[in-house]
Each structure stands twice: as C-alpha cells, then as structure tokens.
Write a structure and sequence with these properties.
Helix content: 25-40%
Order of helices and strands: EEHEHHHHHEEHEEHEHEH
Distance between the termini: 22 Å
Mean pLDDT: 81
Structural class: alpha/beta
Number of helices: 10
Radius of gyration: 18 Å
Number of strands: 9
C-alpha cells in the first residue's frame, strides 16, 4: 500500500449505520479541486443516517460545508454531488493569457475568485452563516500574522472566499478590513472548532494527500505537490496523538480518502471521484477493511 493513507481512528473502529452519539460533527479538510470526493463521502454518511450537528470546513471544505449546511440531508448530499459533477475547470479557472498576466501583476494571483464564487453561490440556500440549518464554522488564515480564524457569523460567501484564498491562485480576501488567506495554511483539518462546540464524535472528510505519483523522475511539480500534501496532513496526525489525553470521550472517524491524481484545473473526473467516494465510504461504514489505495510507492531514482 506504500505511503497512501489508511483511515485513522481514535477511540472507535467502524460505526454502524445510524450510529447515535450526543453530537456529531463533520469536518471537511482542504483539498483543492478534489472537493467532489468530500461530496461523495458526505452523501454516504447521510444515507447511512449519520447526520451532522455541526459542520466545519477549511479551504475547499469550507465551500462544501457551507452548501451542505443549507440542507444536511441525503437529498442535500446528492445535490452537492450533482453540483461537483457539473463543474467545469474551464469555467472556474478560465485561461485567458492576457488577463492572467494582468491579474497576476495587479492582484498577485492567477485567477479572479469571481467564477468560483458563482459556482459556490449556485449551491447555497442562505446568505449569513448564522442562518444555516446546522451550526457552521469556516476556517481561514489571517494574512497579517498567519493565525487561524474561525468564522461563526456574517456573510457566508465572504467566509468561503477568505478560506479558499490560496496564494498565487486567488488573491487574499478582505473581510471588514482584515485580509485572509486559505484556511488550509493554518489548519488543513480543523478539529478544534468541532471540539469547542461540544462534538463527541467527529467524522473527518479529508481527501488525504494524493497517492504517490506513478512516475516522478524528472517531475519537480509532482514531487512538490505530493510533498505539500504530506506537510498538510501532519496536523491531523498530531491532533490524533493528543486527543485521547485532552478529550478522552471524543471519537474521531476518519473517512478513508479516494486515491487519485489530478491537475489544478482538472475537474473532468469529479463525477467519477464522487461516486467512488460514495461507494468506498458506504463499505467503510459497514466495516470493510479494504485499503484505500493499492498503489505502491515509486522509487526516487538515485
């Protein structure tokens, strides 16, 4: 199985469908254009009658959490999957060379957040975070000091755009005079907001980090992307080590990620990835111990 992640658990192995606890949280990690995987995971959980009492999201997970917060039902999960299945990279990340240069020089980023904002807005059913049907927490990173910031109220689109402002891709987002960057930079798997709200079972919907690229010789881009994924995954591993000590009654269920590779603008496989995530998560909830990935770790040439 190499370096690909198996699901991690603290205090629980496999929950039965409809597993009842005092308070369930769904925590959506960052994951770029792999947000469709989280949509499939969420649909499987909802179809298994596991309902969230609070939703927490960072980066692309913030967008998914916000959409689902308006309809945290199996039907809402299906609509989130449909939203991703219809997504087109050329619409969300339009390539116009002249405009890209102007955008990069003027805003310090390759793309305007406008197309992505329209993509998210199409799935939203409320405008203020406090109007969500279940409590919603969106994590972003303050530009001035790099600290984690949790949005608990205010315009939901501002919070989502702040949480998805990945440097060089999108410009920093201004909310009430403060600039914010992608939430994954400070916390790619934000468990703390769920813990602070009193959750005792936390379902982590993380895309993990991508499988080791099948061929990495001569590809500095693939090595860089995979290394960044590994770096961002370290936070949840550290949190899981300390949770049993500080929160002995909390159970974490990390839904196994779907192994895949995709370029930044590649959304062509979103429907397939969502379907795979749905099936894989459904099997996981029934106790299937199959590994999330069968790939072997490639060797780096000497």
């Amino acid at each position: 199985m190499g370096d690909c992640q198996r699901p991690h658990h603290v205090g629980i192995k496999h929950p039965a469908p409809g597993f009842i606890t005092g308070m369930n949280a769904f925590v959506f990690s960052g994951g770029g254009n792999l947000g469709s995987i989280q949509a499939g995971m969420a649909q499987a959980l909802l179809e298994a009658r596991i309902r969230p009492d609070i939703l927490v999201g960072t980066s692309i997970g913030a967008a998914n959490a916000a959409v689902l917060a308006g309809d945290p039902t199996p039907e809402g999960g299906a609509r989130l999957v449909e939203m991703w299945s219809k997504a087109k990279g050329k619409h969300i990340f339009p390539i116009r060379p002249t405009k890209l240069v102007r955008q990069l020089l003027g805003k310090g980023a390759l793309f305007s957040p406008g197309p992505f904002a329209r993509f998210v807005k199409a799935g939203l059913s409320f405008t203020a975070i406090e109007d969500a049907l279940v409590p919603l927490r969106i994590v972003a990173t303050r530009f001035d000091d790099g600290a984690e910031h949790v949005f608990e109220a205010g315009p939901v689109m501002d919070a989502v755009l702040a949480s998805t402002a990945l440097p060089l891709i999108y410009p920093a987002h201004d909310v009430a005079g403060t600039l914010y960057l992608d939430g994954g930079l400070s916390n790619n798997v934000p468990l703390q907001p769920a813990l602070a709200a009193g959750a005792d079972t936390i379902y982590v919907l993380s895309v993990g980090f991508p499988c080791p690229p099948p061929k990495i010789k001569g590809s500095s881009r693939l090595i860089l992307m995979h290394s960044l994924g590994i770096l961002l995954s370290q936070r949840i591993r550290a949190d899981e080590e300390h949770l049993p000590v500080h929160y002995p009654g909390v159970r974490i269920v990390q839904v196994p990620p779907v192994c895949t590779q995709a370029g930044l603008r590649d959304l062509s496989r979103s429907a397939v990835l969502a379907a795979r995530a749905l099936r894989q998560t459904a099997r996981f909830l029934l106790g299937d111990e199959s590994p999330a990935c069968e790939h072997k770790t490639p060797r780096v040439p000497a």
